[in-house]
Specification:
The protein is mainly beta. It is 8% helix and 33% strand. The strands form 4 sheets. Strands 2-1-9-8-7-6-5 form a 7-stranded antiparallel beta sheet. Strands 11, 13, 14, 15, 17 and 18 form a 6-stranded mixed beta sheet that branches. It starts with a helix and ends in a 9-residue tail after the last strand.
């Protein structure tokens, strides 16, 4: 009995002293940080039944992985006497490699430096329920200090509001913009002429917003609203035009005037003296604002892209003798 108490105590001490590795089996290793800001990267644990020889891929949205089907006190024979629940509403999900139950820390400390609430969560390690304590085998109730991880440990299927928001945004199928331009009809333009730029599919909420979606993930109901903040047009000649609006559609009567909202003038011809096109790449910068159960909220940035090509030549003047 004394030997088992020492074994359990040592496991808990090691669990508090080492970094938790809570990445999914399909991840090559995740950064793990303590409250002091120290971080390390270690290989991820194997999810699923120990000794099964096969890892179960993480859920692509939530990052959940299954835990073992049967759990026993660490360091003990796999007998009915040593069997314990693999999950417990209060303690969390049992981790055989650590000999403790992992659960979300409550309350959640502020994220580590350089991290946001959507990037992960703090987890703590609680010992298994005590058996009858004695002088030879004292009851251990110490819970480890919280540690940060990007993904939930195997068997734990609850999320923080920030994690639920990040998971919901993974389900979005936002689109890049379809670029409208004065070079589009002919496929070419000329050095010095105004190029008007606009978003042709701005009426599509998946391309411009607002796009709103609500879901319940990991026990948290979260609503996220995505909107384009601006579009950065990389013009292909090394220059970029940033427009915080969808632009203005060019009309025939506009002549050679500059766009009042989003435009550009090329100073050089496209490659091969205009024979080859520039590739214009429009990067939409989205802001996704979210709110969740309990009043939590935040914002996450993401991007989408669209492209078109434009040949830019040179205007030629011809002198005619009369």
């Amino acid at each position: 009995m004394l030997k088992r108490a020492v074994s359990v105590a040592l496991a808990l001490i090691l669990g508090m002293a080492t970094s938790l590795v809570l990445a999914s089996p399909s991840t090559a290793g995740m950064a793990d940080c303590d409250l002091g800001g120290a971080c390390s990267v270690e290989p991820p644990p194997t999810a699923g039944n120990p000794g099964s020889g096969s890892a179960v891929p993480a859920d692509p949205v939530t990052g959940f992985t299954p835990g073992p089907s049967d759990c026993y006190r660490q360091g003990e024979d796999k007998t009915e006497e040593n069997k314990i629940p693999c999950s417990d509403p209060a303690l969390g999900a049992y981790q055989p490699d650590r000999g403790c139950y992992m659960r979300l820390a409550d309350p959640q400390p502020a994220p580590p430096a350089g991290k946001a609430a959507e990037d992960g969560a703090w987890y703590e390690c609680a010992p298994p329920p005590c058996r009858a304590a004695s002088a030879a085998e004292p009851c251990i109730t110490t819970v480890s200090a919280p540690r940060w991880s990007a993904t939930p440990p195997p068997g734990l299927n609850v999320l923080t509001p920030g994690q639920a928001a990040a998971a919901l945004i993974k389900t979005f199928q936002l689109k890049g913009v379809e670029i409208g331009s004065t070079t589009e009809e002919s496929g070419k333009g000329a050095v010095g002429l105004p190029v008007w730029l606009w978003v042709k599919n701005q009426g599509d909420t998946l391309a411009w917003g607002p796009y709103v979606k609500t879901a319940t993930l990991g026990g948290v109901t979260v609503t996220a609203t995505a909107r384009v903040v601006n579009v950065a047009y990389s013009m292909g000649d090394g220059q970029t035009v940033v427009c915080s609006n969808p632009g203005t559609v060019y009309l025939e009567g506009n002549g050679n005037t500059d766009s009042p909202t989003c435009g550009y003038r090329y100073a050089t011809m496209s490659p091969s003296n205009g024979a080859q096109p520039y590739t214009i790449t429009a990067t939409s910068n989205w802001e996704v604002a979210w709110t969740a159960t309990g009043g939590a909220g935040g914002a996450i940035g993401t991007t989408t892209q669209g492209q078109m090509q434009a040949r830019i030549g040179e205007l030629q003047s011809v002198n005619v003798d009369r």
